Amino acid sequence: MELTVYLAGQIHDDWREDLKSKAKEKDLPLTFVGPQTNHDRSDDIGEDIIGKQPGKVFRDDAASSVNNFRTEVLMQKSDAVIALFGEQYKQWNTAMDASAAITLGKPTIIVRPESLIHPLKELSNKANVTVETIDQALDVLAYIYE
Questions:
Q1: CA distance 36 to 11
Q2: What is the pLDDT of residue 87?
Q3: pLDDT per residue over 95-130, tens digit each?
Q4: Helices (H) and strands (E) in the chain, counts
Q5: 24 vs 30: CA distance, rounded Å
Q6: 106 within 8 A of 8, measured Cβ to Cβ
Q7: CB–CB of 111/132 below 8 Å?
Q8: 123, 92 Cβ separation under 8 angstroms
Q9: Spatial separation of the C-alpha atoms in residues 44 and 128, rounded to whole Å
Q10: Among residues 123, 96, 119, 91, which one has the least CA distance to residue 110?
Q11: What is the DSSP string of 38-83?
Q12: The pLDDT value given to residue 95
């Protein structure tokens, strides 16, 4: 049985590649999907599709519409969601994606450092599992195959 896992979280470093590599080492039958990780592409997609916008607000709104469409399609097709919260970047999109996953009834694993226990307490309470590392998140998924 192969599972599709949506990887929600910031797009500014290579945590997804690290997780994918570790999943491959564990020989887990997982396919990963997620947001557009090319930041410029994500910011430009609205104008690339519908044309130049009259200002920054409209540009961001156009890009957000397309990015939200992508997220919704890929998340609905996913079997589970891993939402990684880090300390370095603002985590608004991660919180939005984790909330959407929970609302859709997707089994959700939240990965967050100890320093974010309090700020994420309600979200963690709604998720199926909360862990502190991507290794622990993969162990949760690996347990499905035992």
A1: 8
A2: 82
A3: 999 999 999 999 999 999 999 999 999 999 999 999
A4: 6, 5
A5: 8
A6: no
A7: yes
A8: no
A9: 34
A10: 123
A11: -HHHHHHHHHHHH---SSHHHHHHHHHHHHHHHHHHHHHT-SEEEE
A12: 94
Q: Which amino acid is at 99?
A: S
- Dihedral of the alpha carbons of 139, 141, 143, 145, in degrees to the nearest 10: -130
Q: Say whether pLDDT at 11 is over 90.
A: no
* Backbone phi and psi for residue 108, each to the nearest 5 degrees, phi listed first: -125, 130
Whether 137 and 131 have beta carbons less than 8 Å apart is answered as yes
pLDDT tens digits for range 42-91: 999 999 999 999 999 999 999 999 999 999 999 999 999 999 998 877 78
Residues 33 and 20 sit within 8 Å (Cβ to Cβ): no
Average pLDDT over residues 126-145: 98
Burial (0-12, 13-18, 19+ Cβ within 10 Å), 5: buried
Between CA 146 and CA 143 the distance in angstroms is 5
| pLDDT confidence tier of residue 13, bands split at 50, 70 and 90 | confident
Q: Which residue has the tokens 């991507």?
A: 134
